[in-house]
């Protein structure tokens, strides 16, 4: 059983829902399976699950066995502190994050017919693997499916805007700014950009909008990117100004390690996007 297969099952919600319980027997509901991460860090970002009456938002990590959490050293990595669910094929060990907090484990049961189809498609040497099966489908069904995918994507984005609009009490400017900031991060840094805007209220940015230097100090300081040892004159000035603004507005910054730079073009580095 490969992790790629488990990723596919989770991403498409194909597990057996009659066995949807934590390893300790508690029931939970999956609200949002999250976005697949192609970079370093947890496998899925921005997921949401409901435990009793509480909605938890965070990341999902997937392994074939739960003990791989330790063999991969996730218990020592800050990037995994926001994991809210550990999805596995076989639960063989309780796992804890770096802070010593236990992470709920979901031992995912997969219907036999899905496993069988996966094995058959895996044997196919041509790409895409479904090339022989797709000719068996009615052309109108394929057309309808493609149209439906487009509508679902639009509905999903519309729902996101509605949620932000409600969150910002009907403020369209704040809603637009939050949505724009998330888009600047693409898939890789979408979550960190969203967190940056959550911790840096739009009204504060408006107050400081007359001063570009103050805006840079606020955004770079809140992002955690000023929390490094650097003695360049401009960097030191930004850091000093941020200390003042942080105290003035009673702000709480975010950890720098959440940002991802690997396998990215320099033009898409989050530091450059923030400066823009």
Strand content: 5-15%
Total domains, how many?
2
Radius of gyration: 22 Å
Average pLDDT metric: 87
The description of the largest β-sheet is: 6 strands, mixed
Question: How does the SSE layout of this entry go?
Answer:
Blueprint: H1 3-12, E1 29-32, E2 35-36, E3 44-51, E4 54-65, H2 68-71, E5 83-90, E6 105-107, H3 112-122, H4 139-167, H5 172-184, H6 190-199, H7 202-207, H8 212-223, H9 233-249, H10 270-275
Parallel strand pairs: 4-5, 5-6
Antiparallel strand pairs: 1-3, 2-3, 3-4
Helix pairs in contact: 4-5, 5-6, 8-9
Characterise this structure.
The structure is a single chain. The protein is an alpha/beta fold and 276 residues long. Strands 1, 2, 3, 4, 5 and 6 form a 6-stranded mixed beta sheet that branches.
Key attributes of the depicted protein:
276 residues, 2 domains, 13% strand, 10 helices, 6 strands, alpha/beta, six-stranded mixed β-sheet
């Amino acid at each position: 059983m490969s992790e790629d297969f488990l990723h596919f099952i989770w991403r498409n919600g194909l597990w057996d829902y009659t066995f949807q319980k934590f390893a300790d027997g508690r029931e939970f509901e999956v609200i949002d399976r999250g976005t697949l991460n192609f970079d370093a860090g947890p496998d899925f970002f921005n997921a949401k699950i409901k435990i009793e009456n509480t909605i938890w938002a965070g990341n999902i990590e997937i392994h074939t066995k739960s003990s791989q959490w330790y063999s991969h050293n996730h218990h020592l990595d800050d990037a995994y502190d926001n994991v809210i669910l550990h999805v596995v094929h076989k639960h063989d060990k309780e796992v804890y994050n770096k802070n010593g907090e236990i992470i709920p484990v979901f031992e995912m049961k997969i219907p036999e017919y899905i496993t069988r189809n996966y094995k058959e498609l895996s044997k196919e040497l041509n790409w895409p693997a479904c090339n022989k099966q797709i000719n068996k489908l009615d052309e109108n069904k394929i057309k309808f499916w493609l149209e439906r995918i487009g509508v679902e994507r639009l509905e999903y984005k519309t729902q996101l805007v509605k949620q932000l609009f409600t969150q910002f009490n009907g403020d369209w400017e704040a809603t637009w700014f939050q949505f724009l900031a998330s888009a600047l991060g693409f898939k890789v840094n979408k979550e960190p950009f969203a967190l940056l805007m959550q911790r840096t209220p739009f009204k504060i940015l408006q107050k400081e909008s007359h001063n570009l230097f103050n805006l840079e100090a606020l955004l770079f300081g809140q992002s955690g990117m000023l929390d490094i040892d650097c003695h360049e004159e401009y960097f030191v000035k930004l850091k000093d100004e941020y200390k003042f603004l942080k105290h003035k507005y009673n702000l709480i910054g975010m950890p720098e390690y959440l940002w991802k730079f690997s396998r990215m073009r320099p033009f898409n580095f989050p530091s450059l996007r923030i400066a823009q």
